[in-house]
Design brief:
The chain is mainly α.
Length: about 200
Amino acid sequence: MIKIVTMKNFLISIKLTLVLIVLCAFLFPILIAMISKLAPGGGKGETVMAHGRVVGYARIGQKFTEDKFFWGRPSAVDYNASGSAGSNKGPTNPDYLKTVQGRIDSFLVHNPGIKKEEIPSEMVTASGSGLDPDISPASAYVQVKRVATVRGIPADKVKQLVEAHIDRALFGMLGPSKVNVLRLNVALDEIGSKK
C-alpha cells in the first residue's frame, strides 16, 4: 500500500513538473515577448536618434562628463549595461563617504557659483542600477548656468529647454517628475547647431 501511494505521488509530481516547465519555460516567455511588441521600440528598446543615427537608448543612462552637456547620475558600474548594480555600501561606510565627497568637490569645480547645499543628492550618489537615464528637474536646473556659459547660449533658453523636457508625474501625483538626460542633450546639440 505504501509503495502504491508513493508511486502515485511520484507520478503526480513528475506531471506537475512537466506542466510547470511548459508554462514557465515556454508559454510565459512567449507571452511576455508578444506583450513587449506593444512597447515603444517593439521590445528592442526605445532608441534616441540624432542626425539620422541612433545615439543611445532612452532607458539606459550614458556617461556625460563634458561641461557642455547635462550630466546624469553617477554610476557605480561606469554605465556598463551588462553589469547593472549599485555600490552596495552603506551611508556610513568611509569609502562611500569619500567617493561622495569627491563627487561633490568635482561638481563644485565644474559648476562655479553653486553652493554644496544646492547640489541635489542624486548628482553625487549612484542609483541602484547604475544606469538611471533620468534626473530630477532640480538636478537639471542646477546645471543650466554651466551648460549655457560653455555653449554661449542664453541661460533662459537653456532653462526653457529643460522645462520642455520634463516628464511630469502621471496625473500630477504618480511618480516623480524627471528629465531624460540623453534626450535633453540631443535637443541641446540641435539648438547649438542652429546658431
